[in-house]
Amino acid sequence: xxxxxxxxxxxxxxxxxxxxxxxxxxxxxxxxxxxxxxxxxxxxxxxxxxxxxxxxxxxxxxxxxxxxxxxxxxxxxxxxxxxxxxxxxxxxxxxxxxxxxxxxxxxxxxxxxxxxxxxxxxxxxxxxxxxxxxxxxxxxxxxxxxxxxxxxxxxxxxxxxxxxxxxxxxxxxxxxxxxxxxxxxxxxxxxxxxxxxxxxxxxxxxxxxxxxxxxxxxxxxxxxxxxxxxxxxxxxxxxxxxxxxxxxxxxxxxxxxxxxxxxxxxxxxxxxxxxxxxxxxxxxxxxxxxxxxxxxx
Length: 297
Known about the structure:
Helices cover 48% and strands 13% of the residues. By secondary structure, the chain is of the alpha+beta class. The protein folds into two domains: 7-86, no CATH class; 118-297, Chitinase A, domain 3.
């Protein structure tokens, strides 16, 4: 059975590409902003409480189209009232779904309460940084990017793209020129097709935490100052890297990351400890790869 999916969810998409949201009106919580049905009233406070659990983007969408928001909220409330009157909450699968939703919400509430109580001392974060500095290393590089395409269509600028074989040959030729003493920055300006690094004379900084293809991460982080890489193939081109310098991100730059990570560790430890304290004993059918039919769920 396909769910109606929350009337509000349907609303959230409305207004996403419209004008910026209007400033929220300053009203008292008891202000009636709509009436419906047989004189039932909707107050500003009720709407604000509902909006408080929404994401910032959803709240902005609501502010963009207040009339539609109120209409859909009233519809959602009315339909839920009808379901209550018909006792649908006591029938399957709604009863089980509501129980599951309530359990999940309470579980998350307990986790949030516990996590909010975790404290990471400044010296704890500093010690973690001092003992794991290799994780925060960053390599400053110069890079040339030679793209290729196996499609015969021309690029947007009208130039025919290089094939993979042509791009590889060009990258290997450039590498020979660099080893023979050619100016790397000059070759960047004349040959590289990556606009971002080209505008910075080929400068690129790579750290261990960056979301990069493994082939690039492995080569880039291993380069010593002045050392050149062989052409590194990627799905759309070849890269030539030259190591410039190696440094470590300062503590102030990674402080928030460390605090968040240490809090995550505390949370995982707490969850593991809580699980162990339950003394869960699994029946044999749970531990078997192919339990006999009917033994368990």
